[in-house]
Amino acid sequence: MTEPTRPLGADLARIAVFAALVIVLGTVVVPVPGGVPITAQTLGVMLAGLILGARRAPLAILVVLVLAAAGLPVLSGGRGGLGVFVAPSVGYMIGWVAGAIVIGLIAHHGRFTWWRAGIAALLGGVVVVYAFGIPLQALITGVPLGPTILSSLAFLPGDLIKVVVAVLLTVALRRAYPRAFPAARTVHAG
């Protein structure tokens, strides 16, 4: 089954809306020692992947990162500029792009269900983001990987809550407005 084509303007608008959502969610910040704050921006990444799919969601995240690189204060705590790309949180931001792709691939491959959305948000929004974020945080801060992994466990409860919230919001939106979602891709036996 192929995904129906939408007008380019509609796709651009959706990408812009989700970029704005990620930016707005960055205003919810809890500072943490070690340079990587707790934010709600990952919730925006999860929602983008679940709703926009694997092709459009990473574009929304890239818009946010380009705006940050241009110096706009679009990241948590009003940060922006090229300096954020050498800060301890850079790996997490790179992980957002990869995570959005993984979320979209899992959530929209086959029949959309709440449990598929949950697995997608957990794997893409937590596991993938941590897989990029933790090693780069350790490298930049000079803290060994083991202690960095242990300190990152402080983020896990909040990220699990974000997974639940993302799934609940997505399921509700899917029931209310199914056209907001890309068509499911199915595997055909050949």
From TrEMBL:
Keyword annotations from UniProtKB, A to Z: Cell membrane, Membrane, Transmembrane, Transmembrane helix, Transport
Name the record gives this protein: Biotin transporter
Membrane disposition: Multi-pass membrane protein
Presence of keyword Transferase: no
Family from the record: Belongs to the BioY family.
InterPro entries named among the record's database cross-references: BioY
UniProt-annotated location(s): Cell membrane
UniProt organism field: Microbacterium soli
Transmembrane portions of the chain: 12-30, 59-76, 82-107, 119-140, 160-177
